[in-house]
């Protein structure tokens, strides 16, 4: 491919709003073009990368027994109303009406659509198990699209779904998908971690997330040097609380003007923050649409893990109570809330570390006042204890090693949905005994376009992108220093033809640009190998540069194909 015939609009400067390295470099290197906030065009080079990623996915999905198909992106809202997600999914869901005033959505994911397909197509367990997948654009109305293609309103995603008549079928499909995902990310050249994760709006109880460590990542990966890794929302640590000694003292109400935080209350009362109860009021929307006020008690400055809390309550939505709601149920505002005297209409949950405390301080449900010497059971009740806290770096993980934190980009997620969707949407088959059973489902997703950002974040440098050979838009960049020099152009054409004959993909820079411009663009574009045809062209010698390491060697033209094949093979092995 001649560079003069392909659109590669390189730029010297990155956009002023580009925070992420991947955003900066993909715009500068002419891979993407922003049509509007969160909406991107993938230019020829990026499109070639995407197609190579798709081909890797297709190969590994076939090995896992999955079959590709295509669903529409425009979906009737009735399907999502059946599952309950039309209301619960949130503001990210694009909702629209057709000319007949019927409700539609732009699909952010396709569990409901595939469930409906199974419900209407498969009636017997003999047709199962079945794994179907697609690679298709998805639509989510992100409030803050950012980091280039990493978080956009439209993006390409692999979404796959397994259908089984029993749990064993789901487990087998899930395990095969887990292996396929590892193979895909290994072949793409990513550093990644497989972590325990929360299923969120997807439903189901078991899931694993594949996350690529990167400074720009919006997720926090909690891991150890052993086998433990989890999303911050799911992470746990070993309980190290020790029952405090001491005799419960008299409950006393104390004025604490201006003390709204744990630290301020501790300073006002002359007590350590670890001895003060943080009392937070939440409003939980339950499955029957009722709203349950829930007070959560935490030790000192421990932070509530809202995902753990929501899962424990098994509620549809969980929001922090407003000042008005706090006053309605407790008679005070946040900063002065506490469990003493709270009626049965408010459910009280407490983190397990609260159980070991004696003579605590807590809000008195009277603005500007706290109780001291509050004790469990004598002065206040707790309806249930549990692990409701966010873990802290350095705590001991379940595997006995210290927890470490790093940021990560979510690149894939697999879920054991079970019967979450099939039960609600009536997807059933006859089992071997002739009884109707709910189809057991799994859901599997990879953010295809965000893989570009993940690779760029991990492998780009200050000069530009650095693509692994497996997904690079071209294998080799051939650059004649002087396009007006007949000998250089002749040799450049010769080596291009030789490389292409060896099934290598070549980008030939035939532009009449200065050498410095060509080299800068080449570094930006980031192809694995660069072949420079210069002054020694008449001697049949060219220079080969490895983009990842910067190493250069001189090679005879007749040895070039063999040399580059060896270099590319080494790159694959090192990746």
TrEMBL record:
GO terms for cellular component: cytosol. It catalyses: tRNA(Pro) + L-proline + ATP = L-prolyl-tRNA(Pro) + AMP + diphosphate. Transmembrane segments: none annotated. GO terms for biological process: prolyl-tRNA aminoacylation. It comes from the Bacteria. It is found in: Cytoplasm. The gene is proS. Residues 47-468 form the Aminoacyl-transfer RNA synthetases class-II family profile domain. Homodimer. InterPro entries: aa-tRNA-synt_IIb, aa-tRNA-synth_II, aa-tRNA-synth_II/BPL/LPL, Anticodon-bd, Anticodon-bd_dom_sf, Pro-tRNA-ligase_IIa, Pro-tRNA-synth_IIa_bac-type, Pro-tRNA-Synthase_IIa_type1. Pfam families: HGTP_anticodon, tRNA-synt_2b, tRNA_edit. The lineage of its organism: Bacteria, Bacillati, Bacillota, Bacilli, Lactobacillales. Its EC number is 6.1.1.15. Belongs to the class-II aminoacyl-tRNA synthetase family. ProS type 1 subfamily. Consists of three domains: the N-terminal catalytic domain, the editing domain and the C-terminal anticodon-binding domain. The keyword Transport does not apply. Coiled coil: none annotated. Catalyzes the attachment of proline to tRNA(Pro) in a two-step reaction: proline is first activated by ATP to form Pro-AMP and then transferred to the acceptor end of tRNA(Pro). As ProRS can inadvertently accommodate and process non-cognate amino acids such as alanine and cysteine, to avoid such errors it has two additional distinct editing activities against alanine. One activity is designated as 'pretransfer' editing and involves the tRNA(Pro)-independent hydrolysis of activated Ala-AMP. One of its GO terms (molecular function) is proline-tRNA ligase activity. This is Proline--tRNA ligase. Keywords: Aminoacyl-tRNA synthetase, ATP-binding, Cytoplasm, Ligase, Nucleotide-binding, Protein biosynthesis.
């Amino acid at each position: 491919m001649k560079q003069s015939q392909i659109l590669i609009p390189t730029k010297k400067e990155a956009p002023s709003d580009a925070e992420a390295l991947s955003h900066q470099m993909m715009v500068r290197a002419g891979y993407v073009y922003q049509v509007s906030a969160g909406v991107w065009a993938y230019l020829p080079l990026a499109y070639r990368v995407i197609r190579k990623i798709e081909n890797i996915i297709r190969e590994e999905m076939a090995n896992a027994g999955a079959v590709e198909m295509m669903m529409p992106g425009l979906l009737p809202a009735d399907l999502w109303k059946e599952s309950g997600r039309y209301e619960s999914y949130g503001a990210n869901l694009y909702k629209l009406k057709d000319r007949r005033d019927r409700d539609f959505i732009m699909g952010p994911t396709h569990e409901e659509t595939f469930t409906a397909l199974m419900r209407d197509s498969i009636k017997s367990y003999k047709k199962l198990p079945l794994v179907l997948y697609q690679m298709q654009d998805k639509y989510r109305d992100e409030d803050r699209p950012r980091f280039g293609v990493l978080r956009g309103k439209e993006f390409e995603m692999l979404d796959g779904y397994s259908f089984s008549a029993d749990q064993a079928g789901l487990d087998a499909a899930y395990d095969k998908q887990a292996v396929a995902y590892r193979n895909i990310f290994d072949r793409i050249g990513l550093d990644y971690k497989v972590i325990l994760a929360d299923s969120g709006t997807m439903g189901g109880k078991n899931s694993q997330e594949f996350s690529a460590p990167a400074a720009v990542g919006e997720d926090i990966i909690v891991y150890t040097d052993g086998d433990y890794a989890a999303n911050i929302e799911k992470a746990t640590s070993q309980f190290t609380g020790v029952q405090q000694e001491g005799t419960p003292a008299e409950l006393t109400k104390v004025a604490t003007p201006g003390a709204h935080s744990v630290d301020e209350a501790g300073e006002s009362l002359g007590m350590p923050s670890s001895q003060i109860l943080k009392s937070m009021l939440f409003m939980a929307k339950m499955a029957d649409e009722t709203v349950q006020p829930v007070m959560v008690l935490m030790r000192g400055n421990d932070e509530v893990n809202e995902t753990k809390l929501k899962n424990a309550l098994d509620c549809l939505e969980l929001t922090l109570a407003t000042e008005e709601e706090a006053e309605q149920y407790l008679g005070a505002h946040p900063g002065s809330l506490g469990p003493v005297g709270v009626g049965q209409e408010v459910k009280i949950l407490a983190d397990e570390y609260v159980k070991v405390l004696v003579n605590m301080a807590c809000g008195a449900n009277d603005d500007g006042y706290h109780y001291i010497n509050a004790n469990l059971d004598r002065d206040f009740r707790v309806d249930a204890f549990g692990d409701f806290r966010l873990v802290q770096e350095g705590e001991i993980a379940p595997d006995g090693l210290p927890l470490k934190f790093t940021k990560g980009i979510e690149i894939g997620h697999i879920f054991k949905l079970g019967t979450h969707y099939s039960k609600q949407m009536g997807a059933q088959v006859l089992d071997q005994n002739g009884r109707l059973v709910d189809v057991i489902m799994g859901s599997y997703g990879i953010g295809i376009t965000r893989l570009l950002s993940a690779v760029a974040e991990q492998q780009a440098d200050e000069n530009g992108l650095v693509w692994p050979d497996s997904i690079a838009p071209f294998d080799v960049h051939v650059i004649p220093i002087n396009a007006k020099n007949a000998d250089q152009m002749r040799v450049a054409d010769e080596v291009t033809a030789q490389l292409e004959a060896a099934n290598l993909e070549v980008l030939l820079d035939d532009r009449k640009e200065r050498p410095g411009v060509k080299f800068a663009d080449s570094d930006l574009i980031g192809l694995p190998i660069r072949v420079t045809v210069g002054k020694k062209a008449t001697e049949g010698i060219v220079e080969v540069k490895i983009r990842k390491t910067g190493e250069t060697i001189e090679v005879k033209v007749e040895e070039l194909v063999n040399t580059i094949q060896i270099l590319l093979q080494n790159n694959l092995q090192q990746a």
